[in-house]
Amino acid sequence: PEKETVIRAEIPGTVLLRGDVDAPVFKRALGTHQTLVADFKGDVQAVYEVDTWSRMGERATLAEVEFQPGSYFYNAAAGRLYVSSTDLRPADQHRYSVPVLGRHGLELEKPVRVVLEGIAVRGFESSRMADSRTLFGNWGIIFLGARDCIIRDCTAFLNGGGICIASEGEGGNLVEGCTGYGNSSPHNSSECAGVLLYQSKNDVARNCVGYRSIGVGVRIYGLAAEHGLLEHCLGWGNEGPDIGIKAGKAETCATKNSVGLGYFPVLNVSNSILGSQNIYVPDEKITKDNIHLKTERLNLEQEFCYKRRGLSGMRLTSAMRNSPPDGKDRGPFPY
Predict the structure, then answer these.
(1) Which of these, 155, 266, 295, 327, is most buried using a 10 Å CB contact count?
(2) pTM
(3) What is the phi-psi region of residue 80: left when phi exceeds 0, alpha when psi lies from -120 to 50, beta otherwise?
């Protein structure tokens, strides 16, 4: 068998790979009410308002920035960057960053038995559309044509897309304990996920979290995708599905013991919390081992305990415990 290759932060939480730079100090542009300006020389790929996890919309002219909050214009010839904050507050009440590399972050081609562990990435995005193999976007971490690889305890934020493993073959990959948030791209607004298994085969995402991205939270996607599993995953606050599976062989894929507080399109789902619609299963046919917040009147604080990352387990007095028809606990959190 091939030798295992390990890429690991020696001390977890100490390695951050950046494709962006901190923006300089802004000041009010002369003759304007809402437009801020700073001197900046570089290849501006995008602009992020870091403290609100917002990607600023690029505008074709300076005049548009004054009337469109959350936008920017870059005058490359003059070396001046103009922004209008998302809430029209002064620039010193926000922090901004500028992606400048215009590419993926940590990208591996056809990796086999590679373990990536404890790495964080931010600011990898491009003003130009990528190719269809990467769903037209740029990713903080992306493994292409991966086999028997593991991405563990990694974080991707403020990129075009977060963390992606694309099997394109035998697969057998695992994404575990990873988090993606605040990722967004105009080139692929529907699929720039927090965590994505793309064209997956026998791949698993376990204990992963995806939130506040313009696309999806945690998802399996692709015409060739089959035999994939999302397990113990959490998604919330995304503009697309919080938890989702859209695969050519969706009947072979499944989601177990997961929480999606919004849109949750999955054909095979068990012991999970669904916050909203599941287009593949009518409300009345969602099995009772799941909890469907859209149709059930629940007091979550009464039924569940809370920890920093959200729901953590059922209370002793929860009506979800020892429920019919099989007498087992409902949802993803047995006591």
Answers:
(1) 266
(2) 0.91
(3) beta
